Amino acid sequence: AHRLWTHKSYKATLPLKIFMLMLYSSAGQNSLLNWVRDHRVHHKYSDTDADPHNANRGLFFSHIGWLMLKKNEEVIKRGKQIDMSDIENDPLLRFYEKYFQWFKLLFCYYLPTMINVWFWGEDWKTAVAWQCFLRYITTFHSELTVNSLAHAFGYKPYNKDLKPAENRFVATVALGEGFHNFH
């Protein structure tokens, strides 16, 4: 979803878009519209006060603090200026945004839990513990390491002046996203 909707790196067929939305829902993050807007702002204003997870504000802030605190006024201002017409005008994404919370409940919590109950014979409590807590927390923090650790630690083969770095640990836990210096 990241490269398709934030960066428009490729075109996708309708079935692939639907599949990507199911996967995005399973991550349990903010709505796609908010995620894409914040990420576009991050790329345009990286490591400034307009960056939603500005690494210059510290490791904790860039990892999770930005989700816990009120957004900087500059982030809000720049977010309103970012062109989101491709997302806002897509009928599939409008439908998805309208029912996002239901998709999130279904694909992030209900189905992962019930698959463990139905197909692996796990009891309800174990399935909830593994799927609603452990899986969610692990994938959530894996993604957040890109904002924090990949902006703080690693080597810089492409541009030594940028804060983002190549971080093998982050690349491993975030499925390649830790190769961040060319970001």
From TrEMBL:
UniProt membrane topology term: Multi-pass membrane protein
Domain annotation Fatty acid desaturase: ranges: 5-183
Gene Ontology MF terms in the entry: iron ion binding; stearoyl-CoA 9-desaturase activity
Bilayer-crossing regions: none
CDD domains: Delta9-FADS-like
InterPro entries, alphabetized: Acyl-CoA_DS, FA_desaturase_dom
GO BP: any one term: unsaturated fatty acid biosynthetic process
Any one GO CC term of the record: endoplasmic reticulum membrane
Compartments in which it is found: Membrane
Primary localization class, coarse: membrane
Necessary cofactors: Fe(2+)
Protein keywords: Fatty acid biosynthesis, Fatty acid metabolism, Iron, Lipid biosynthesis, Lipid metabolism, Membrane, Oxidoreductase, Signal, Transmembrane, Transmembrane helix
UniProt record similarity statement: Belongs to the fatty acid desaturase type 1 family.
Record note on domains: The histidine box domains are involved in binding the catalytic metal ions.
Name of the protein: Acyl-CoA desaturase CpomKPAE
Organism, as annotated: Cydia pomonella
